Amino acid sequence: MKTTIVNVKDYEGKEVKIGAWLANKRSSGKIAFLQLRDGTGFMQAVVAKSDVDEKTFELAKNMHQESSMYITGTIVEDTRSPLGFEMHVKDIELIHEAIDYPITPKEHGTEFLMDHRHLWLRSKRQHAVMKIRNEIIRSTYEFFNEHGFVKIDPPILTGASAEDTTELFHTEYFDEEAYLSQSGQLYLEAAAMALGKVFSFGPTFRAEKSKTRRHLIEFWMMEPEMAFVEHEESLEVQEQYVSHIVQSVLKNCQTELKTLNRDLSKLERVQAPFPRLTYKEAIQLLKDKGFTDIDYGDDFGAPHETAIAEEYNMPVFIINWPAHIKAFYMKPHPENPDLVLCADLIAPEGYGEIIGGSERIDDFELMEERYKQYHLTGPAYAWYLELRKYGSVPHSGFGLGLERTVAWISGVEHVRETIPFPRLLNRLYP
Ligand code: 4AD
Ligand code: MG
């Protein structure tokens, strides 16, 4: 019976055949222990000299790392292994012999591993991170579909910038100039006026010259946009959504979290509601903690975000930012027009900002004024202004950075391990 490692629990005491790669191996005179992987999981296979013919035993003893095979044997319980089962081998059919696999079980440097990303993905740790990424994507679709959102796919090639124009990737669009999307927000606002509650989930591009553990050049963003939803209501969606993905990973990725040695207690307590701190309070908190490099009106850097996060064992919203350090489309605070109705959600444990969101300006005249202030001219922005002309309504939305979220939930230090093929300041290979 052909099966996979993840399903061997259904075959205790039975003989099965599995297509697998050799992840690692050790052997002594009469026995060989093969560490197998098949994409669905990792399992030990025991080859006893007395159970197999001589050719098979020699093959098992001499096989090289990452060779591929069909392997047949009986599934038996093994309480010491994380899987709970191992295979007692009867036969091995070698498919392809791998010689000199570059990533050996010894330690390798980061640049070496990044140069071999196409192979590094096979390792147990990378496998675990990709499974957690997948669970976050799966539970994201689950959450937004269950809450009545419609998936909308904004264009990747655009004529307008949603965020900081200095970070745009320029490209040719026949005889026009175009950019790669930094955010689908502007298009999602149009879609929300057609469908009410919408979301997108796709790649975004930022030519940021940042070389930090939180920055990618190409990253995936989850962006909901909601008509008739005001700022505080949007915060409630955000905290429920983030709680949902954390709890889904806890429920469905136990093996992977164990592989990564993740402290589960730090994830278990992530439950809505999350604390809210005003920007002004955050500045005061930093000053009280001894920071001298930040003043009212400055944006936060990574050390500031980390220091704020340390005060809470939950994600924390920073609300009511000064308008001049935020985007042109954010709605002024009704009690203080120098502030905008927006929030950044800061993850615990130093992972930084995972969500940026706001209520959007819905007043035509005010948006026209912002266009002048921010020099947003030309046909690229005309349609966005028109949304304020025909049945404009209060609306809010936000963007969650997938890779920073995967890094936080997995407990991995750097975002380069959270996307299959990271695009970094100095890296387009592989
Ligand atoms: O705060 P940002 O720039 O917000 C927007 O783009 C809004 N238009 C979203 C919206 O309201 N629809 O980006 C949102 C999130 C950040 O909080 C961060 O998690 C992630 O995107 N992000 C990055 N992740 C990795 N590498 C980068 N260079 C990132 N830049 C932003
Ligand atoms: Mg932001």
Describe the structure.
This protein has 430 residues and is α+β, with helices and mostly antiparallel strands. It contains 13 helices and 18 strands. The strands form three sheets. Strands 7, 11, 12, 13, 14, 15, 16, 17 and 18 form a nine-stranded mixed beta sheet that branches. Strands 2-3-4-6-5 form a five-stranded mixed beta barrel. A three-stranded antiparallel beta sheet has the order 8-10-9, with no helix packed on it. The radius of gyration is 26 Å and the shape is elongated. The site of 4-amino-1,4-dioxobutan-2-aminium adenosine-5'-monophosphate has 23 residues, from strand 12, strand 17, strand 18 and helix 13.
What is this entry, summarized?
With 430 residues, the protein is an alpha+beta fold.
Cα end-to-end separation: 37 Å
Quote the beta fraction.
Answer: 25-35%
Helicity level? 25-40%
Per the CATH scheme, the topology name of the largest domain is BirA Bifunctional Protein, domain 2
Low-confidence stretches: none
Rg over C-alpha atoms, rounded to the nearest angstrom? 26 Å
For this structure, the quaternary state is: single chain
According to CATH, the homologous superfamily of the largest domain is: Bira Bifunctional Protein, Domain 2
- Proper CATH architecture of the largest domain: 2-Layer Sandwich
Number of helices: 13
Count of folded domains: 2
Shape: elongated
Number of strands: 18
